[in-house]
Amino acid sequence: MTPQKKISLTRYLVEQQRIDGLIPGQLRLLLEVVARACKSISHAVNKGALGGVLGTAHSENVQGEVQKKLDIIANEVLIEANEWGGHLAGMASEEMDAIYVVPNRYPKGEYLLLFDPLDGSSNIDVNVSIGTIFSVLHMPEDDRGVDEGDFLQPGKRQVAAGYCVYGPQTTLVLTVGDGVAMFTLDREQGSFVLTQENVRIPADTQEFAINMSNMRHWASPVRRYIDECLQGRDGPREKDFNMRWIASMVADVHRIMTRGGIFLYPWDKREPGKPGKLRLMYEANPMAWLVEQAGGAATNGKERILDIQPTKLHERVSVILGSKNEVERVTSYHSEL
Ligand code: P6P
Predict the structure, then answer these.
(1) What is the pTM assigned to this prediction?
(2) Is the pLDDT of residue 40 over 60?
């Protein structure tokens, strides 16, 4: 549903605050600053080769992954946009090993901001959709300084979460705990405009998203689920399935937020000591909350992602999220082990 009159992000946040009080002034400032930072990142991404921003930065991040120039640019944009506003105590990023404590030359606020500044960056150089994912937590009560432990809160304690997908449109998708709204960047006005609210994910789907090249490495519950989907109408599911895999979580999740589906990046035996590939704090948690707020479900195969108590800032997790009935089916197969 596209609202008739143009409602800006600012107006939406102010009016939402009047309705349910979930967006106090400092949080509204935080969300508007993050939105502006995403606009800047979108601008840099859209320049592509013309901006000299493609290719690698010849460095590695904490995950041991080669950093793209745009990974570093996006990270710097988010840090510089947020550090001076007085709404944050600290930040954490996929691109930084340690947390970033707001410098003493700026006032510190009550929120913590975590982000993957540019998710899906392997797609940058081939002009496929990528995005920024962010999660907002509250500083623990009467806390002294800011340390990594303050960030290690389960996803159910988030106060805001969202992503911005840089695709044919630049779209910001946001929740503060009262449903999900989508805002499309109006490049003529230079502002995000409300284009969908009360986003709902259908409970059933015929579309799954998984990297099939890893099939031989999956655990049996995932193999069983995908095998049954592949058997189509002649198999136990009695319906045909379609497959999508963009290898950019933001783009795959945005499709699911828009038309339903199930996304799986499960544990596999390539690196059995790792619970999964995706990161809990700034990929799985924000996406899991958005999906749940839109009526979907998100588990690691065994438990609700939002209930997981983190132990490390960059810990990884197995992710199964999307249409509720499909996620519950995969999760039930795990419980039958
Ligand atoms: P693979 C991107 O690098 C990412 O972290 C997610 O955005 C995406 O879903 C996944 O990895 C893709 O992984 O192994 O298919 O390249």
Answers:
(1) 0.96
(2) yes
